[in-house]
């Protein structure tokens, strides 16, 4: 599908992920200067978009406030059980470093590619 526009790195990484795994990742980007409870906002978004409605409970939300460079990563119980809390702690450190050191969209895309590797290992596409 050629639209004449270059796809963003986030869209490319999500497309790659969808070809690798049954897991799902959604990215929600906001620009709010005074968002006090980013975790609460992310949990509300996770529920609002019904990210937990995957067969294997392997949905993930990356919620990023572009204005403050704050973020939350919310995972459903299936993927959380498969990779453990340490994985999410390390992913959060990497995302924080990437947001500070590279272009915003590239930072998110890099971490989606990392998620694709883990999701493929634990939730490969069933043939």
Plain-language structure description:
- The protein has 127 residues and is α+β, with helices and mostly antiparallel strands.
- It has one domain: Diaminopimelate Epimerase, Chain A, domain 1, CATH 3.10.310.50.
- 52% of the residues lie in helices and 16% in strands.
- The protein contains five helices and three strands; from the N terminus they run αβαββααα.
- It has a three-stranded mixed beta sheet with strand order 1-2-3, with helices on both faces.
- Helix 2 links the parallel strand 1 and strand 2.
- Helix 1 runs parallel beside helix 5 and helix 4 runs antiparallel to helix 5.
- The longest helix is centred in the last third of the chain and has 19 residues.
Major beta sheet, specifics?
3 strands, mixed
CATH topology: Diaminopimelate Epimerase, Chain A, domain 1
What percent of residues are in strands?
Answer: 15-25%
Encode the helix/strand succession as letters.
HEHEEHHH
Shape: globular
Mean pLDDT: 94
Please identify, by name, the CATH architecture.
Roll
* Tally of helical segments: 5
Radius of gyration over all CA atoms, rounded = 14 Å
Which blocks of ≥5 consecutive residues have pLDDT under 50? none
Features:
127 residues; alpha+beta; Diaminopimelate Epimerase, Chain A, domain 1; 3-stranded mixed sheet; 16% strand
